[in-house]
């Protein structure tokens, strides 16, 4: 079995209210110098050798990411 990681992030042009809330909270707890925060999702999937890169891409596109507002990266 191999572990595959799929990282899903909001597209750069999409507002990220959760990331902005974290950014504001950093200032309240005294952490300065952070210019931006983007919050995403991480999926860890265990697969065997029969699962192809194309199948993993299809899983990410159809189930894990909203392709209108999110980008993804599959890391084997």
UniProtKB/TrEMBL annotation:
Catalytic reaction annotation: N(2)-formyl-N(1)-(5-phospho-beta-D-ribosyl)glycinamide + L-glutamine + ATP + H2O = 2-formamido-N(1)-(5-O-phospho-beta-D-ribosyl)acetamidine + L-glutamate + ADP + phosphate + H(+)
**So which domain of life are we looking at?**
Bacteria
- Give the signal peptide, or none: none
Its GO CC terms are:
cytoplasm
Q: Name one GO molecular function term.
A: phosphoribosylformylglycinamidine synthase activity
Places the protein is found: Cytoplasm
InterPro entries in the cross-refs: PurS, PurS-like_sf
Pathway assigned to this chain's UniProt record: Purine metabolism; IMP biosynthesis via de novo pathway; 5-amino-1-(5-phospho-D-ribosyl)imidazole from N(2)-formyl-N(1)-(5-phospho-D-ribosyl)glycinamide: step 1/2
Q: What is this protein called?
A: Phosphoribosylformylglycinamidine synthase subunit PurS
User: What is the originating organism of this protein?
Assistant: Corynebacterium lipophilum
